[in-house]
Each structure stands twice: as structure tokens, then as C-alpha cells.
Write a structure and sequence with these properties.
Number of helices: 3
Number of strands: 8
Strand content: 35-45%
Helix content: 25-40%
Distance between the termini: 41 Å
Radius of gyration: 24 Å
Shape: flat
Length: 153
Amino acid sequence: MLILDAMIIKVALQAMAFEAPRLQAVAIVVGFAAVVLFLVFTTRWVLEVNVQHKTWKHALRILGFHLGISKPFNAIERVFINKLRMKQNAMPVVPGLPSLLPSYSECLYKAFLKFDDGEKLELLTDTDKAKLVRTLNRYNDVLQTQIWDTTGE
């Protein structure tokens, strides 16, 4: 994405060298769009937990900078997994006739980090429980806490 944006901006700057005002306006719009797309596709919300300093923060990561306020914690009580069943029934377009769209149902697994003061933070969400547990086990190498499975499976 970064290479594509750099190429778009380069073409826009080359177009600015011409004397045609219409081409310059197009170049400015294309360059601005490239910068906006770059920001949209590289900006993320992240959760940072620093176990050495005993702080956590929800941060907005923009261009490599993490913007957020750190909050202290005493201890991590546990990580737990919940199961959420989601179901969607499609409404028919014409009342009385069956729907053309299928209804579906799926399970969503969510992992939460619970601190000793009762604060809970969502760590991960996935439809594949095995994948979620594998990722949690990698996180737990650093967190060093219990993982509780409350799904009953």
C-alpha cells in the first residue's frame, strides 16, 4: 500500500510540473486521495499491555505513533473466553413469500483480559476457537496468567 501511494504521489507531483491548471487540479485531488487512503489503511486501534510497568492503554496507531493514555493496574487476574451465538434471519422482500436470502447462524469467540480491580478488556475475537486459543497461548507467554474457557466445550 505504501509503494502504491508513493507512486500515485510521484505521478501527481510530475503532473504539477505542467502548466495546465486542470491537470494540476487533478494531480492535487489524486495526491490528497492517496494520502487519505494511506492513513485509512494503516491506522489501527491497538491494545498495549506492559507487564513490567504494569500499565495498559487503548491506543490509536497512526504512522507508527501510538496515541493513547496509559492506565495502571495491580495484577492480571485471568484471561477468559466467551462464546457468542449470532443468528440472522433474512426478511422476505415480498410479505408472504419466502426470502431469497439465506438465514445463517454462527458462533463468535471472544477473549477478555480481566484485571484484579474488575476491569475487563477485549483481547481477541474469532470464529475459530482453536485459532483464538493458539493466539492466546502466544500472548500468555508474556502475560503469564490463567486462561479460563467459559464456553463449556
